[in-house]
Fold:
Amino acid sequence: FAGVSGDPTPVAGNGLLSRRAFLRGGVAVGAGALATAVHAADAAPRAVQPWQQVPGAALAPTGAPSPFEPALERKVASLFGASTPGNGVAWTPLERLHGTITPSAVHFERHHHGVPDIDPARHRLLIHGLVRHALRFDVEHLLRYPMVHRQVFIECSGNSFPNAGATAPDLTCGQIHGLVSCSEWSGVPLALLLDEAGIKPSAKWIVAEGADAATMARSIPLSKALDDAIVALWQNGERLRPSQGYPVRLVLPGWEGNMQIKWLQRIAVTDGPQHTRDETSHYTDLLADGRALQFTFVMGVKSVITHPSPGWLLTAPGYHDVSGLAWSGSGRIARVEVTADGGATWADAELQGTAAPFGFVRFRLPWRWDGGPAVLASRATDTDGRVQPTRADWIARYAPNQRYHLNAVQAWRVDEFGELRNVFL
Amino acid sequence: FAGVSGDPTPVAGNGLLSRRAFLRGGVAVGAGALATAVHAADAAPRAVQPWQQVPGAALAPTGAPSPFEPALERKVASLFGASTPGNGVAWTPLERLHGTITPSAVHFERHHHGVPDIDPARHRLLIHGLVRHALRFDVEHLLRYPMVHRQVFIECSGNSFPNAGATAPDLTCGQIHGLVSCSEWSGVPLALLLDEAGIKPSAKWIVAEGADAATMARSIPLSKALDDAIVALWQNGERLRPSQGYPVRLVLPGWEGNMQIKWLQRIAVTDGPQHTRDETSHYTDLLADGRALQFTFVMGVKSVITHPSPGWLLTAPGYHDVSGLAWSGSGRIARVEVTADGGATWADAELQGTAAPFGFVRFRLPWRWDGGPAVLASRATDTDGRVQPTRADWIARYAPNQRYHLNAVQAWRVDEFGELRNVFL
Structure:
C-alpha cells in the first residue's frame, strides 16, 4: 500500500498505523511516501520568486499574522440575550491551533457580567477572616513576590455543552470544545500569602471573590489553596489581559474554570463553604435520579481530535496524521486511544513531549485514509485510572438538562469527499 | 531584620538569602513579612469599586492588553541606514515579560532585507542535491505531516552587541540582550523529509536558503539536520507570522539564530559547506590573535537578571525577588549563581520548573535590599560544564570589533534611589 514509509503495520481498523510509521528509525524508506505531497523536482531550483525581487517590509514594534491567513478569532455568544452582552462565552478555535500553548488573544472566556476595566493603581487584594492578621496587597507590591511559572489548562465546567442536546450540532471542534485553553501562568503561590496572614486552626475553606460587576465568588477548600493555587499576574510572558482577570486572577490547576476567579479582590478564610450564588444557582450537576451534586471541582479526563476535524478538508486519500489534545483535572494523562472505525477497534496514540502536569498533552497517530467513510474518535485515560466515557454512559448518568462536566468521547465522521462533521457514536 | 519570612539565612553578601526564604515549609512565619507590601486591613471589605457598578465590556473575538499597561513593543533599529529599513533588528523587551514564553508579537527579529509577504499557495520547499529523489513540497501537504512540538529559544549570534563597546551603554535588559526569545515551535522533523528524499552516502552537509530578498543561506552539517532540526509551521499555537518566516522556517535548537532560515524555500544536500555570503562576510568571529573562527554554530551558556533591571524602580528597601533567564546552546542549564556585591560573593539560585532542553530556564533568589548601593549579576553553568565568562575574559579572547557570541556576565548597579543601570564589572 503506497503512501507510508517507516513501519506501516496496521494497529487498528480502517487505516490506523503504527506510531513509528513515517518516523525515522532503522527501517528502509522510499521516496514518494506521501505521494500527493511531493513531486519530482526539476534539477534546477525555481526562478526567483516575486517576493525576492523587492525589499521586504521594514521592521516594526510588533509582529502581526500573515494577511494570507484567515483572522484567528473566537466565536462569541451572549448566553442570556443582547441586553447582557458581557454574560457569555468566547470559544478558542482549537482546530486553527497546533502545539499546546493557546495564544493569549484567543484564550477562551466565560464572563458573568462583562470585562471590567480596572486601574491597577486602585485595585487591592484583601485577605481576611480566620487569619491572625488581615492583609491588603496592592498590585505593585504583589509584583515583588516570588513567582512560580506553570503551564496549566483552564476549562469551563460548561465546556462541550453543545453536545448535550439530542442531535449532534454542525459545529467545529473549537465551537464545541473550545472553552478550554492552556497558558503559562506566572504568579505568587497563594499559600505564601495565606501563611503571611497566618491561618487560624479553625480555617477549612476560603471564599475567592472577583471585582467584576457580577462579584463572582466561589468557595474553595483550604487544602487546594495551600497545595497549588496561584495568584497569577502574568500569562504567556505578558501581564494578564483584562479578559483574563487583569490585574490579578486565581489559578487552580485542574479545577473548574469558574472557580479560578478573575479580577481577584478578596479572599475570605472561613470554616466552611459559603454557598454563594455562583455555586448554588449555577455549577451544580443534576443527576438522573434527581439528586444534585455540588462542589464537583475537579475536571474530568478528556481528549479531542483537532486535526483533522470539521473545517479541515481531506483533499486526497493516503497518509494523514491524526493529532489532538488531551487533559485531565487529576493532572496527568496516561493513555490516549484512537479509532478510525467508529469505536470497533482502537489503538494507542503517541503522547508527545514532556507533558507538564495540568498542561495540555498532544497525541498523534498515523492514519492511511482509503477515501471511504470513516469515523475518527479519541479516548483518554488519566494516571488516576479515570477513562473518558462514551456519550451514552455520560447521558445516562445525568438529568436531561445537565450541561456541566461533559467529557464524553467526541467522534468526527469523514465522508467520501473528505469533509468532516460532528456525530454522536 | 524585618522583611523576610521562611528561612532568612544569608547565603552571600549584601542581602542574598536562602532560596527557602518566603517559601512555605515547616518554619514559623509572621505577618508583615513584606512590610511595605501589606497593611493591616479594616475588618470589613472595601466599598464596591466603580468598575463593579456598571456592566463590563462585551465579549470580543480577540482579547487585548489593558489600556493601563504601556504598549508591549520592541525597540527597532535599521543597522545600515534608512535606505534599507528591513535590514535590522527588533529586540524583545525581556524586562517587561515574565515566565519563559515570549509572545509571538514581540519575538526578536533580525532580517537581512526585510520581511517578504509570501502567498503560501505559491511557496514551495525544494530538497535536492545528493539525494536519490529531488522533492518539492507545497505548504498544504507539509501541514499533513507528523508534527513535533518543542519549546526552544532562538538567539541571534549578535545578541548583546551593545556591551561590546568600551563603555556600558545606558540601555534596558531587552535593548541589550533581547535578541533572544523562546517559543513553542511545531513542525515536521527535517530528518523525515530528508529520509523521504533518500540521502546519498556522500552527503555531509545541507545548505538552507530563504525566500527573502536577501536569499539568506547557511551551510549546516547533515548530522544536525538529522538530529533535531524542525521545519516549523506553527509558533506558540498559531501559524508562523511573516516576521518569523511564514509560511515555513527552519529551527535548529541551540544554534545561531541566523542559521534557522526563515521563509525556507530550498535545502541542498551537499558534500561540504558552501561558504555562502552569509557565512563569510558575516557571522565569523575574529580572535585577538588575528585568526577568524568560522562555523561557530552552538550558542554559548548565558544568563541575565530581568527583574529587577533598568526600568524597574526599587521603591523601598526590604524583600525583593531576583529573577532572570538562563539558556545554553548545549541544551541544559546546570546552575545559576547570583551576586549582589559585584561578584565578591555568589550564591546558587533556584532553577524553576521542569526546564525543556533548549528552552529558557527561569532562576530566582530572594534578596533583602538594605537601601544602599549594590551590584546584581548572574552567572550560568550548563550541563557540559561551560561557565558564562566574565566580560574581561570574553574581551581578551576576541579582536576589538568582535560582536558575535557575546555571553559575558551582565551586571546591574543599584543606586541609593533604587534605580538600576548597566555597568561593566
